[in-house]
Design brief:
Shape: globular
Oligomer: single chain
Distance between the termini: 51 Å
Structural class: alpha+beta
Radius of gyration: 16 Å
Largest sheet: 3 strands, antiparallel
Protein backbone atom coordinates (compact mmCIF):
# COMPACT_ATOMS: atom_id res chain seq x y z
CA UNK A 1 0.00 0.00 0.00
CA UNK A 2 1.45 3.32 -1.11
CA UNK A 3 0.63 6.58 0.68
CA UNK A 4 1.20 10.05 -0.75
CA UNK A 5 3.75 12.39 0.80
CA UNK A 6 0.89 14.53 2.14
CA UNK A 7 -0.73 11.55 3.89
CA UNK A 8 2.62 10.68 5.48
CA UNK A 9 3.18 14.31 6.50
CA UNK A 10 -0.24 14.59 8.16
CA UNK A 11 0.32 11.24 9.88
CA UNK A 12 3.83 12.04 11.13
CA UNK A 13 3.06 15.73 11.86
CA UNK A 14 -0.69 15.91 12.46
CA UNK A 15 -2.22 19.37 12.71
CA UNK A 16 -4.75 20.36 15.37
CA UNK A 17 -4.35 17.36 17.67
CA UNK A 18 -6.04 17.77 21.03
CA UNK A 19 -9.30 18.81 22.56
CA UNK A 20 -11.06 22.15 22.85
CA UNK A 21 -12.30 22.79 26.36
CA UNK A 22 -15.91 23.99 26.27
CA UNK A 23 -16.14 23.15 22.57
CA UNK A 24 -19.22 24.45 20.79
CA UNK A 25 -19.59 21.18 18.89
CA UNK A 26 -18.20 17.69 19.39
CA UNK A 27 -18.64 14.83 16.95
CA UNK A 28 -17.52 11.26 17.45
CA UNK A 29 -17.74 8.48 14.87
CA UNK A 30 -16.26 5.04 14.54
CA UNK A 31 -15.93 2.11 12.19
CA UNK A 32 -16.46 -1.26 13.91
CA UNK A 33 -14.77 -3.17 11.07
CA UNK A 34 -11.40 -1.43 11.37
CA UNK A 35 -11.63 -0.04 14.90
CA UNK A 36 -10.97 3.60 13.95
CA UNK A 37 -12.56 6.18 16.26
CA UNK A 38 -12.49 9.92 15.48
CA UNK A 39 -13.56 12.76 17.72
CA UNK A 40 -13.68 16.31 16.32
CA UNK A 41 -14.02 19.43 18.47
CA UNK A 42 -15.17 22.76 17.04
CA UNK A 43 -15.07 26.32 18.38
CA UNK A 44 -17.62 28.42 16.50
CA UNK A 45 -18.22 32.16 16.65
CA UNK A 46 -20.87 33.91 14.55
CA UNK A 47 -21.28 30.78 12.37
CA UNK A 48 -17.54 30.62 11.59
CA UNK A 49 -15.36 27.73 12.75
CA UNK A 50 -12.51 29.54 14.44
CA UNK A 51 -10.80 26.40 15.75
CA UNK A 52 -10.95 22.66 15.16
CA UNK A 53 -9.11 19.89 16.96
CA UNK A 54 -9.25 16.12 16.90
CA UNK A 55 -8.41 12.97 18.81
CA UNK A 56 -8.23 9.82 16.70
CA UNK A 57 -7.61 6.21 17.60
CA UNK A 58 -6.73 4.37 14.44
CA UNK A 59 -4.39 3.79 11.55
CA UNK A 60 -2.16 6.34 9.85
CA UNK A 61 -4.80 7.15 7.26
CA UNK A 62 -7.34 7.84 10.02
CA UNK A 63 -4.94 10.28 11.69
CA UNK A 64 -4.07 11.94 8.37
CA UNK A 65 -7.71 12.39 7.31
CA UNK A 66 -8.65 13.79 10.73
CA UNK A 67 -5.77 16.24 10.51
CA UNK A 68 -6.69 17.33 6.98
CA UNK A 69 -10.40 17.61 7.78
CA UNK A 70 -9.67 20.02 10.65
CA UNK A 71 -7.43 22.05 8.36
CA UNK A 72 -10.14 22.23 5.70
CA UNK A 73 -12.90 23.48 8.02
CA UNK A 74 -10.98 26.05 10.07
CA UNK A 75 -11.96 29.57 9.07
CA UNK A 76 -15.01 28.42 7.12
CA UNK A 77 -18.65 29.07 7.84
CA UNK A 78 -20.75 26.18 9.10
CA UNK A 79 -22.44 25.89 5.70
CA UNK A 80 -19.09 25.82 3.88
CA UNK A 81 -17.77 23.18 6.29
CA UNK A 82 -20.82 21.01 5.66
CA UNK A 83 -19.81 20.90 1.98
CA UNK A 84 -16.38 19.39 2.78
CA UNK A 85 -16.78 15.85 1.47
CA UNK A 86 -14.72 12.75 2.01
CA UNK A 87 -13.56 13.12 -1.61
CA UNK A 88 -12.30 16.64 -0.84
CA UNK A 89 -10.39 15.32 2.19
CA UNK A 90 -8.82 12.52 0.13
CA UNK A 91 -8.00 14.91 -2.73
CA UNK A 92 -6.36 17.39 -0.34
CA UNK A 93 -4.12 14.51 0.78
CA UNK A 94 -3.23 13.71 -2.85
CA UNK A 95 -5.32 10.56 -2.67
CA UNK A 96 -5.77 7.53 -0.47
CA UNK A 97 -5.49 3.85 -1.30
CA UNK A 98 -9.00 2.47 -2.05
CA UNK A 99 -8.88 0.28 1.06
CA UNK A 100 -8.39 3.43 3.18
CA UNK A 101 -11.13 5.64 1.68
CA UNK A 102 -13.37 4.75 4.64
CA UNK A 103 -11.08 6.95 6.77
CA UNK A 104 -12.00 10.01 4.71
CA UNK A 105 -15.67 9.08 5.10
CA UNK A 106 -15.22 8.96 8.89
CA UNK A 107 -13.54 12.39 8.83
CA UNK A 108 -16.47 13.89 6.89
CA UNK A 109 -18.98 12.25 9.24
CA UNK A 110 -17.10 13.46 12.35
CA UNK A 111 -17.14 17.07 11.12
CA UNK A 112 -20.85 16.84 10.33
CA UNK A 113 -21.56 15.25 13.72
CA UNK A 114 -19.70 18.09 15.46
CA UNK A 115 -21.70 20.67 13.50
CA UNK A 116 -24.93 18.85 14.34
CA UNK A 117 -23.87 18.90 18.01
CA UNK A 118 -23.37 22.67 17.78
CA UNK A 119 -26.73 23.16 16.08
CA UNK A 120 -28.50 21.00 18.64
CA UNK A 121 -26.96 22.96 21.55
CA UNK A 122 -28.15 26.18 19.94
CA UNK A 123 -31.67 25.08 19.05
CA UNK A 124 -31.01 25.00 15.31
CA UNK A 125 -32.09 21.40 14.75
CA UNK A 126 -35.38 19.64 14.73
CA UNK A 127 -36.13 15.94 14.95
CA UNK A 128 -35.58 13.80 11.91
CA UNK A 129 -38.51 13.94 9.49
CA UNK A 130 -41.25 11.37 9.92
CA UNK A 131 -43.44 10.51 6.96
CA UNK A 132 -41.86 13.31 4.92
CA UNK A 133 -43.27 15.93 7.30
CA UNK A 134 -41.04 18.58 5.74
CA UNK A 135 -42.24 17.77 2.24
CA UNK A 136 -38.89 16.35 1.18
CA UNK A 137 -38.24 12.72 0.38
CA UNK A 138 -35.62 12.26 3.08
CA UNK A 139 -34.80 11.64 6.69
CA UNK A 140 -32.13 14.32 7.06
CA UNK A 141 -32.07 16.79 9.90
CA UNK A 142 -33.24 20.22 8.76
CA UNK A 143 -33.04 23.75 10.07
CA UNK A 144 -36.05 25.06 11.89
CA UNK A 145 -36.49 27.72 9.22
CA UNK A 146 -37.53 25.07 6.70
CA UNK A 147 -40.59 24.31 8.81
CA UNK A 148 -41.77 27.90 9.24
Amino acid sequence: MQYSEKVMDHFMNPRNVGIIENADGIGQVGNPQCGDIMKIYLKIEESIIIDAKFKTFGCGAAVATSSMATELVKGRTIEEALKVTNAAVAEALDGLPPIKMHCSILAEEAVKAAIDSYKEKNGLLVEKCDNNACGKNCCNIHHLEKFK
